UniProtKB/TrEMBL annotation:
SUPFAM superfamilies: NagB/RpiA/CoA transferase-like
Main location: cytoplasm
Gene3D superfamilies: Translation initiation factor eif-2b, domain 2
Species name: Cercophora newfieldiana
Lineage of origin: Eukaryota, Fungi, Dikarya, Ascomycota, Pezizomycotina
Record's protein name: Translation initiation factor eIF2B subunit delta
Length: 457
């Protein structure tokens, strides 16, 4: 009986070999031979399928990495949240700080993705969006023409290492002095035409980006620009440079150092034997006045109501106690009524005075002035004339102010200053001599005119 043959026809590949080729795994290594192996249709189809699956896996992996890098919403307590991969993201307290999140491992490596820096102003309501805020600017992001001395001052202002208006003014002028000393007029230009737009303005822009200019800085810069523009185009560079340096030195001596001395002397005359002087927070003019009154032999007490955020009053209280002055200290406005009733007069430091006589000072000053006026206490403000603003008026604290970057979160923010209307101020003591130096707040424009025109004295 004839048996059924199982052998394949001659010249055809064995059936077993064909079946094995069709079931080869996509990633299985192929055995190299001396002759290149030609893939069958089934093998090509399996290879294309494997490559397509690899591409899909790679796309999915990238999407997961991008999702992991996005900051998750903060929890109800305003703390840190966690992403899908367990990595922490920044809550409101960490606004403005960048962190690193890692995407899944790819080929044995773990590249990092930088989380984009979040805008710290995003939580401020729109009605307050016009108010500026100090911010740190990396030196590498500054204009290439910004002088190293100005870079340093800008960083100190942004971090509030220098925060008093007059301290900021003096630091700015000293930095500008170094800019002028290192300046050389390019060939074919003159100092009067080149210095302001190409050298001075980049310095000013950088300082303004770090923190908004205070009133005294704006006034001083206008005077400096006026001095530069007054030079004739043919004025030798050495002569013009020397004139600018001399102006800055004279300005610091007269409008800062001497002004501080005169104000402290005149204000100390307002303190009588047995007085109880009420003040708010810490201000260098107030402190120098109290120390001067003590040196004059007066015996008096001081009530300090401190700014609960700044705590500068603690430092001033320690300095006053060291020289034998009796000090009553309150950490916040909770003791306002008691301190006002105890006081005989009130001394307040000012950041600036507007053209309508309104006082621009640390937040909380207005509360002291209003309460003292209601209790029929004399309220005297201390301020240099370089801090006077002859052009702007203010009746509230929402027009000209700053947002405290250290007290800004998703839940709340704090303004650095408030505005005290002129009818709550009994008088203003400046370096300008008017008898005792005590002038009504409404007389600011007359004071400025007399100061600029000696013929009116």
């Amino acid at each position: 009986m004839a048996t059924e043959g199982t052998a394949a026809p001659a010249g055809a590949p064995p059936a077993q070999a064909s079946d094995q080729a069709a079931t080869v795994p996509p990633n299985a290594p192929t055995t190299s031979t001396t002759e290149p192996t030609q893939l069958t249709g089934a093998q090509l189809k399996a290879k294309a399928k494997a490559e397509k699956a690899a591409r899909r896996a790679k796309v999915k992996e990238v999407k997961e990495a991008v999702a992991a890098a996005q900051p998750a919403p903060a929890d109800a307590k305003g703390g840190k949240g966690k992403g899908k991969d367990g990595s922490q993201t920044l809550g409101p307290q960490g606004q403005g700080k960048a962190g690193l999140a890692h995407r899944p491992s790819m080929n044995g490596r773990r590249p990092s993705i930088l989380i984009v820096e979040k805008d710290i102003r995003s939580s401020i309501p729109e009605c307050f969006s016009h108010l500026p805020m100090a911010k740190r600017i990396h030196p590498s992001h500054a204009h290439k023409d910004v002088h190293p001395a100005v870079l340093t001052v800008g960083q100190q202002m942004a971090t509030f290492a220098i925060k008093d208006s007059i301290a900021r003014l003096e630091a700015t002028l000293l930095a500008f002095r170094k800019v002028i000393e290192s300046y050389e007029t390019p060939k074919g230009n003159s100092l009067s035409r080149h210095f302001v737009p190409h050298v001075l303005n980049p310095q000013i822009e950088y300082l303004t980006e770090c923190r908004p200019m205070c009133f005294s800085m704006g006034n001083a810069i206008r005077l400096l620009k006026t001095k530069v523009n007054s030079f004739d185009i043919d004025t030798p560079e050495d002569e013009a440079t020397e004139g600018l340096l001399e102006m800055i030195d004279l300005f610091i001596n007269e409008r800062i150092t001497l002004a501080e001395f005169v104000i402290a002397r005149n204000a100390a005359k307002q303190i009588q034997e047995g007085d109880v002087v009420l003040t708010y927070g810490s201000h260098r003019l107030v402190e120098k006045t109290l120390l001067r009154a003590k040196n004059n032999g007066q015996s008096f007490s001081v009530s300090i109501i401190d700014d609960p955020y700044d705590r500068g009053g603690q430092v001033m209280a320690t300095a006053l106690r060291e020289v034998g002055i009796r000090v009553f200290y309150s950490p916040n406005l909770g003791g306002l009524k008691t301190n006002v009733e105890r006081a005989t007069n009130v001394l307040l430091g000012a950041e600036a005075i507007f053209a309508n006589g309104s006082l621009h000072a640390a937040a909380g000053t207005a509360d002291i002035a209003v309460a003292a006026t209601a209790a029929s206490k004399k309220v005297v403000a201390l301020c240099e004339t370089i801090n006077f603003d002859r052009e702007r008026v203010s009746v509230d604290a929402l027009t000209y102010n700053e947002i405290d970057p250290e007290q800004n979160s998703a839940e709340s923010f704090r303004l650095l200053y408030d505005t005290t209307r002129d009818h709550y101020i009994t008088g203003v003591i400046t370096e300008f001599e008017t008898g005792t130096g005590n002038s009504p707040a409404q007389a600011i424009l007359a004071l400025l005119r007399k100061q600029e025109d000696p013929a009116l004295n």
